[in-house]
From TrEMBL:
Taxonomic lineage: Bacteria, Bacillati, Bacillota, Negativicutes, Veillonellales
Entry's family note: Belongs to the SfsA family.
One Pfam family this sequence matches: DUF123
MF terms (GO), sorted A to Z: DNA binding
Name of encoding gene: sfsA
Record-given protein name: Sugar fermentation stimulation protein homolog
HAMAP family in the cross-refs: SfsA
Record's signal peptide: none
Domain SfsA N-terminal OB: 15-79
Amino acid sequence: MADVYYSGIVSAGFVRRCNRFVVECDLQGKRIQAHLPNPGRMWELLFPGRLLYLTPSAGAEKKTQYKVVGVERNGTPILLDTQLSNLVAAQLIRQNRIPAFSGWDVMKREVTFGDSRFDLLLGRGEERFIVEIKSCTLFGRTLAMFPDAPTERGRKHLRELAELTKAGYRTGVLFLVQWRHAQYFLPDYHTDLAFSRTLYELRRKIEVVPVAVEWLPGLILGKENRVLPVPWEIIGREAQDGGCYIFVLRLPVDSSLPVGTKGIMHFPRGYYLYVGSAKQNLTARLERHRRKRKKFHWHIDYLRQICEPHAAIPIRTTAPLEHEIAAAVSKIADWRIPGFGASDCDCNTHLFGMREDPVHSPAFIELLQYFRMDRLDDLRDKI
């Protein structure tokens, strides 16, 4: 029999995210706010009109009438309630549905070692196994990745788990992938290079166990779950501080300004997407683009004086993708600024404009998904 965790689920349409933990949604024609117990970015999931699963709030969540517990993507429910992940993980372990933890008993949830708290303590005779649970909601065509936002806390947990092995404990990280269609897993080195490198470095000390689970309509836990392979070779090769990027800026009003030797250029109000590359020190390049005060060198330095940074999106890769990315952005852009940022290549431009926020555009998120995730399917097949 399937495992049921929620009762009284109602459906609503996503409207917008008010802050990290509150969303506005359409419930039977009425706009309401609901608590979102998940701080992840979830750009790939939260589009206007997407079907959300809500349950009545309780306890500290009473500031809003409802809590968001899931979302539907391509007809498949996905759990968003991070507060439930530990309970689900403990249930899977008790049912011996995860081979890495087969034969272990769940002794305690939320156990403290030093100044950190971990999610599960397992026991088998005199042996002890400390397990941290991470809920993964970032998926491409076949790849699942974690995290979808930088997590210094997550990296700290990895270091501390490695230290605990010196005291005789077994330790591990269980990535609970909330999507049964995932075929393999990688740390998201585009979003959090430090976390990904740390996981790669400690992979022989800490057991890394990604498990894809099945959610049925009504957010019922199905019987299908499987351990996903981790192609560490991709991380060893691709998780470097170099590659390409899309720097997104917002211009509130129509403006004109001089741009180096290009002279006066006109920029309609809206969002601007600048495509660039840095073979090394990609993080520093994006930090430089964010700053206003600097010696002008690139065309983007001039535009930054009248725009506010909106999103800095690295695409870490050893492949020369800059011009391919520019061509892809050009296809979804509302306008282009000819000759901008393309002095040293054959591209018409590397600066593109959009009327609406690209982060909320399915076409733009699909583009990011390809260059950050789906193209890795070919690399995996060659390994």
